[in-house]
């Protein structure tokens, strides 16, 4: 997947993501989170990723 494109797509929906680290940084991503993360918030992030991937 194009991690930069996914980060932009998710950013437009209010979520902050970035590439991973090291040798696999172009193939992995990180989901930024601060403080109190609720299951519904994670479900929204995963739904956005599904939408980006076309599933």
Distance between the termini: 14 Å
CATH superfamily: Aspartate Aminotransferase, domain 1
Class derived from helix and strand content? alpha+beta
Task: List the strand order in the largest sheet.
Answer: 1-2
CATH architecture field: Alpha-Beta Complex
Order of helices and strands, N to C? HEEH
Mean pLDDT: 88
Low-confidence segments: none
**Which fold name is given in CATH as the topology?**
Aspartate Aminotransferase, domain 1
- How many helix segments? 2
What is the total domain count?
A: 1
Task: Please identify the top-level CATH class.
Answer: Alpha Beta
How many DSSP E strands?
A: 2
Helical content class: 40-55%
Largest beta-sheet details: 2 strands, antiparallel
Name the overall outline. Answer: globular
- The fraction of residues assigned to DSSP E strands is 5-15%
Rg on CA atoms, Å: 11 Å
Which labels suit this protein?
55 residues; alpha+beta; Aspartate Aminotransferase, domain 1; two-stranded antiparallel sheet; 2 strands
Quick gist of this model?
The protein is built from two helices and two strands; from the N terminus they run αββα. It has 55 residues and is of the alpha+beta class.
